[in-house]
């Protein structure tokens, strides 16, 4: 329609002008409308990514997770899901040299958080990762990986009573 108006105003006798104008105003294929191509990203999209942070200090980890969510929001990246895992408890003992006598004993907890993002363009993801690495607090470990469903299964704590009932049900089936 626009091309027809331009043709009426400017006579298109020169083949170079005719080619550039038709290429400029017509972008879709013959059988598909133009608006289907406008919503697609020009840059490749990454699969669902999982950003994992680990640290010994609970409050630092919580603040950094909040910062990560705000940064993703500013960059217009949608955060699909975020969750915390139960802390891992470590018992560390220091021994006297050459003996089995314990000098000191430490109980450490490692806290872990995950943030899941999908359909992130490759350009935005590289900028996000560089910004996260630059602002990483001391003692916090950052890991960016493709999302694995087994990672999400770790967050669900098994119900002990339900497992006990299932085991008793299995034993009753085996006896019968």
Automatic annotation (TrEMBL):
Residues 50-145 form the Small ribosomal subunit protein uS10 domain. GO terms for cellular component: mitochondrial ribosome; ribonucleoprotein complex. SMART domains: Ribosomal_S10 (SM01403). It comes from Lasius platythorax. This is Small ribosomal subunit protein uS10 domain-containing protein. InterPro entries: Ribosomal_mL48, Ribosomal_uS10_dom, Ribosomal_uS10_dom_sf. Keywords: Ribonucleoprotein, Ribosomal protein. It holds the Pfam family Ribosomal_S10.
